[in-house]
Amino acid sequence: MERVLRDLAAQTQPPEEVVVVDNGSSDDSVARARRLGARAIELGTNTGFARAVNQGIVECRSPWVAIVNNDVHLPPEWLERLHSAADGTEAWFATGKMLRMDAPEMLDGTFDAVCRGGCAWRCGSGRRDQSAFGQERTIWLTPFTAALFQKRLFLRVGLLDEQFGSYLEDVDFGLRCAAGGFHGRYVPEAVAYHHGSATRGRWHSATVRQISRNQVYLIAKHYPKRWWRRYGWPVAVSQGLWGLLALRHGRAWAYLAGKAEGVRGYRKLRAAEPPGAMDAVLSESESLLRQMQRRTGFDWYWRLYFLLT
To answer: For the whole model, what pTM was predicted?
Structure first.
């Protein structure tokens, strides 16, 4: 946290204010944040990523809001490059290229894409940085790891859905943006560095459980009526392959617990009518995902998914 606060203070386009939302830390994070000039909001307990981010968005008073995780390192020109690109293309949000902190030649991620089966890929994650990810482009789904947003976007499509807690809440937000026609911009020159899963670890059982649950939540919220007629097989393949991935990492029970929790919450999230444009959104996003996999080499997961569907 201290490092990213110093990074923000050193930006070539300094932020008007910095707000730190403390999600129930047990150390002296709040005092340290205030000593470094941030306005700190204490939530008292760990409320999950979505609620904490929402609180920060509401508290911010500027027309643009940058959302940054505490395990990110930002070069001085990061904010200026994102703002310039978004403002120049009338985009509602912008994100840059994220490299791994411990191996800067490797990508942590860029923008997101989701398949018809309800699983998402952070495009480029785990790949060596290459030209396929060096081109500026229009995007619909952005990670909330380090990104810039027009604050009025949240008035148009809503805040993060707090029912998701943590994981895939940004994909849910991106699908709402896509359905409403609110595009963003991927700006590869705006490079940042990410430690990644610094709090729990990448395959912690709680992480697997929440991702598994939230995959079901995405389907409940966004898929059209009688979606199983058109998407039943892609969903079965995608979710089954993700279960095999969890099993490989010793997290089969967490995967099953997450699916059971998702099924229990399905009806509640299904209450709202999904957007009518979602068929086109899913088709376009899966096409992008397949294109990026083809250009950079298929992972075994996505090779099997596209082979089977």
So the answer is: 0.94
Q: Is residue 253 part of a domain?
A: yes
User: Can you spell out the DSSP letters for 15-42?
Assistant: -S--EEEE-S-SSSHHHHHHHTTPEEEE
CA of residue 224 relative to chain centroid, distance: 23
On whether the CB atoms of residues 13 and 83 are closer than 8 A, the answer is yes
* Domain extent for 298: 205-308
pLDDT digits (tens, 9 = 90+) for 90-123: 999 999 999 999 999 999 999 999 999 999 999 9
Task: Examine residue 252 and state whether it is found in any structural domain, yes or no.
Answer: yes
- Give the per-residue SS3 of 168-215: CHHHHHHHHHHHHCCCEEEEEEEEEEECCCCCCCCCCHHHHHHHHHHH
| Residue 134 domain-assigned (yes or no) | no
Structurally, the chain folds into a number of domains equal to 1
Residue 230 falls inside a structural domain: yes
